[in-house]
Amino acid sequence: MFQRRSRIVRGLLAVSLLGSVGIAAGLSAPGSNEASAATANPTPVTTPAAAPLNFKLDPIHCMALFRIHHVGAGRFWGMFDDVSGTVVYPEDGSAAPAFDVTVKVESVHTGTEKLNRTIAGPQFFDAKEFESIRFVSTGGTSTGDKTWDITGDLTMHGVTKPITAKVECTGVAANPVQKKAGFEAIFAVKRSDFGMNWGVKNKALGDEVRLVVGLEGDWVR
Amino acid sequence: MIKTVILSMFLPILAGGGLVALCWLLPPLRKWKWLSGVAFGFGLAVGGFASFVAENGVPPFPPTERKQWIGLAAVLAGVFAVLGSLTGSAGKERSWPSTEFFAVLAGVVVTCLPFITHWAGGDLQPYFSGSGPADQIAMGLAVTVGFLALDRIVEARAGATLPLVFFITFAGLAPIADAASWITLTFLFAVAAGISLIAAVAARFGGSPSIGRGGLLATVILLVFLPTAGYRQTYGDFPWWAWGMAAAAPLILLPLEHPWLAKLPPWGGLTLRLVLVAAIVGTAVVVVLQAGAGADAANDYGGFN
């Protein structure tokens, strides 16, 4: 009787031991790694960066505004309507956007026809010879939440110079049909650096031109 | 703005006009007929170049921008003011074939200058945007034919007539250039007009010297180059032919050399010539200003639709 009871106890112990091994093996099965790792290692969780998306600029919602000092008195504004190009940008803002933007000089618009002709004419942009302004970014450093200092080459009036623009991603809007990204760039250039010298020496027109460029691009699948 | 006007207009007029006045009024210089024949063309060139430099700096050769051609055209005019005067002193008969030779030479140089600049290390490109070899040939032909056509008038109309005709022509081209919104070109025409007016006054009191073949060749080069540049490089919203109409207005002097009209008294002949030139130039200016006025009105009221 006693021998029979001890065999039963040994059998139960063996079963419980096998069960423990099985449970232990089950805990270390595939799919349970992250939980065990989280318990073992307290480093923060990192999600993979979003892939950069290609956006084609929507000319209707893009514009380049400029401001310049006139005879040392007032500052007047003008705008280029025809802005086109591309932006490459990961929508989570994990990397700086890359720009290739072209502005048609003939699209200059000041509200005065004669002034438009003067600015597009040989006295300034000479648009019949130098039809467009182009900015191609070469890099960027983050300055905050979805803001960057973007460096790149600006070609204007046949002259190419490196510039730095303060760029902000103003938003990414998405719906099941399309996705749009918006950016605003602010920078200043000296027009004399680009060979547009008229009126600089006698201060008829300021040398520094401040620009505010609003861009909106449509995601290209 | 006043400083700009002084540097780009008044001082160049004083420089070019002063040169002409000195050569035509100072007795020791007046006796030197060759110098007298060079003065007008060289004065125009000096004034035009000074005006361009005041606005844009010294144009490089070969030019790096097309608009620099209008400054280099003034240099070309100066060179041909000297070369043209080699064809004979003012008032002398045309010396065949030297006059024809320099007329053709000027036309060939104007046609081929872009190739010459390419040979000198510049880019091979036509003078102005949207132009091509056909424009260059047309400009060269216009210089040769214009010079040969007006050459007989230089002989016949010494004195104030031609400077006054060119004053009206350049003075009419200035508002056309202004309507096209090219400030430098406007100043250049205004300077040429101012120098022509000073030359007319100097001719009146200086014994009626002729502008000479050099003066004519320089003027024709400027009248071909500058309006072509204005037409090609600007955005004037007026008919293109207004440039040509104003620039070619002096050609009306040719039919006025008919023997019937030669019987008119001197004051009558001068008045008729000036009125006809002014009518042609004035018509071109009115066409331009009306077109511009229409555009401005449309802009004022219809630009924000």
Overview of this structure, please?
The complex is a heterodimer of chains A (221) and B (305). Chain A is built from three helices and eleven strands; from the N terminus they run ααββββββαβββββ. Chain A is of the alpha+beta class and 221 residues long. Chain A has two domains: 2-40; 53-219, Lipocalin. In chain A, strands 1-4-5-7-8-9-10-11 form an eight-stranded antiparallel beta barrel. In chain A, a hairpin with a 4-residue loop joins β2 and β3. Chain B is mainly alpha-helical and 305 residues long. Chain B has one domain (2-236). Chain B has helices spanning 2-25, 27-30, 33-56, 69-85, 98-119, 133-156, 161-179, 183-205, 212-233, 241-247, 259-262, 266-302. Chain B is globular and about 50 Å long. Mean pLDDT of chain B is 86; it is low at 297-305. The A-B interface holds A 71, 106, 111-118, 120-123, 126-129, 158, 195, 197-199, 202, 204 and B 1, 3-4, 7, 55-57, 64-67, 128-130, 180-185, 232-237, 292, 295-296, 298-299, 303-304.
N/C terminus separation of chain B:
34 Å
Largest interface (CB within 8 Å) is between: A-B, 25 and 33 residues
Poorly predicted runs of chain A: 15-40
H-E string of chain A? HHEEEEEEHEEEEE
- Please provide the count of β strands of chain B: 0
Beta-strand portion of chain A reads over 45%
CATH-defined topology of the largest domain in chain A:
Lipocalin
Shape of chain B: globular
* Integer-rounded radius of gyration of chain A: 31 Å
Hey, roughly how much beta strand do the residues of chain B contain? under 5%
Count of structural domains of chain B: 1
- The gross shape of chain A turns out to be elongated
Supply Rg of chain B.
Answer: 19 Å
- Strand-pairing-aware structural class of chain B: mainly alpha
How would you characterize the largest beta sheet of chain B? Answer: none
Main sheet specs of chain A: 8 strands, antiparallel, barrel
CATH superfamily of the largest domain in chain A: Lipid/polyisoprenoid-binding, YceI-like
Q: Which sequence of SSEs, written as H and E, runs from N to C of chain B?
A: HHHHHHHHHHHH
Query: What structural class do helix, strand and pairing data of chain A support?
Result: alpha+beta
